[in-house]
Structure formats: C-alpha cells, structure tokens
Design a protein that fits this description.
The protein is mainly alpha-helical and 252 residues long. The chain is built from 12 helices and no strands.
Length: 252
C-alpha cells in the first residue's frame, strides 16, 4: 500500500487490513517500520546484562526476526493487543539467539546457584530476607565482590518473568496442571511480596511496567549498573524461594 498523495503514511489499521486481505508486502514493510521501536526497546532492556563482545546489532537482528514472526502469526480475534503479543515474540527471539551463541560460561549457573542457596539458608535461619551485607558474609566475600558477582550472573536472570510462572514445574498435559499453576502463582505472589521494598519496586517496574533499567535507575536515583544488580538480586531471591517451595525455575 502506497503512502497518501500528501506524503503521509497510511494508518496502521489500513496496513493491517491490506496485509491480511491481500498479503501486501508493502503493507508488511509499513508494519515492520511502525513496530521497530518495540525491538529497540527490548534490546535496551537486556543489553545492560550482557558483555561488551555481544554486539547490539546482533540483538536487534534477533529481535527483528521475532517481530516478523509476530506480524505473520498475529491473530487479532484472540483479543490480545499486537504490541503485547509482539513483545513476547521479540524477547523470546532475542533469548533464543543468545542461547544459540552458547556464550555463557558454565560456571555462571554454579555461581548463581551458590547465591540462591546462601539466600535460602540465611532466610531460613533469620526468618526474613537477608540484607546484601549478610549475603556477602554468607558467601565469604566483601560487599564489593558480591556486587561484582551479581554483575557476573546477571545474564542468568534474563528470562521474561512469565517463564517462571509458565514453566515452574507445571505440565499443561496433566489434569492437575491448572491447580499446580494456581499454586505456583500464589507462591510467586508471596515471593514478590517478601522481597525488600526496593527490589520489589524494581520487579514491578521491569516486568509489569516494562521500564528499561535506565528508566528504573532514574526512578530510584541510582546508577543503571546498580539497578541491574538489584534486578538480578531480586530474581535470585525469587528463584531461591520458589525452589525451596518445590517449584522449578527456568534460566536463560
């Protein structure tokens, strides 16, 4: 579908209609252009967790593939806004691309598990969530080294938060899966409520409000790197709580 004679672009509804009705490639190109900011925003949300050698152009490429798949497979009659549907596809495509690169050092999972086990042990002994200083002491490292450790294991917590609730030990083929999922959702809600206030806010802003870490840092009045650490620590606390409760948790 061509642009209007006055040079303006056709409305999105017209682009969707032309694409659905005729498979019009020009309309598809228009849709890709219109929704490309979703890709760039998704990349900006994961980039702070990744090492410098992973190129932003590669992440955009992975996200672009997800956007194309979202446009091709979107079914508006299901009542889900395209943006919400596309964001999941884009995020999933980026994570699939990262997994395919096999760039994560094997010891990262071991380090993350060590933090989770320390948090779980301290929480059981103290009857509350341990402070960062207490976790560092439990690990036998300085607070500075603990923060560095959080930076290292940040990529482990890259998965979209709903993967925890979608794959946390449930099996949709089993009759009991609905009950299990309700139990898991209750456990997740309780685990979030148990987080320290700042980490609870980070989880809310990042996963429910879809803010970037840069935006979260501005809200909290901290550096982007510190916001990244708080998000990583919050996810490790949640994973520790869910694992202790008998639920499995996926990782990137």
């Amino acid at each position: 579908m061509d642009a209007d004679t006055n040079g303006t672009k056709p409305p999105l509804d017209d682009l969707w209609q032309a694409f659905y009705t005729h498979g019009d490639l020009n309309s598809k190109s228009g849709l890709v252009e219109a929704y490309l900011p979703l890709v760039k925003r998704a990349v900006s949300r994961v980039r702070p967790f990744l090492p410098d050698f992973i190129q932003e152009e590669d992440l955009i490429g992975y996200g672009f593939v997800g956007l194309l798949e979202a446009i091709d497979r979107y079914e508006p009659n299901k009542g889900v806004p395209f943006e919400a549907y596309a964001v999941k596809r884009i995020q999933g495509s980026i994570l699939d691309g990262l997994r395919a690169m096999s760039w994560l050092p094997r010891n990262l999972h071991r380090k993350a598990k060590q933090v989770e086990e320390t948090i779980d042990s301290l929480r059981g002994r103290l009857g509350r969530q341990p402070t960062e200083d207490e976790v560092a002491d439990g690990l036998g490292v300085s607070l500075t080294d603990y923060h560095a450790l959080l930076n290292d294991v940040g990529p482990i917590t890259l998965m979209p938060f709903d993967e925890i609730t979608e794959h946390g030990g449930t099996d949709s083929s089993q009759p009991s899966s609905k009950v299990e999922r309700e139990e898991l959702l209750t456990a997740v809600a309780g685990a979030i409520d148990d987080l320290p206030d700042r980490e609870k806010l980070v989880v809310t802003l990042y996963f429910q409000r879809d803010l970037t870490l840069k935006e979260i840092a501005q809200v909290l009045g901290v550096s982007e790197g510190r916001a990244c650490q708080l998000k990583t620590q919050a996810l490790l606390r949640l994973r520790a709580t869910l694992l202790a409760a008998g639920f499995s948790a996926t990782s990137a």
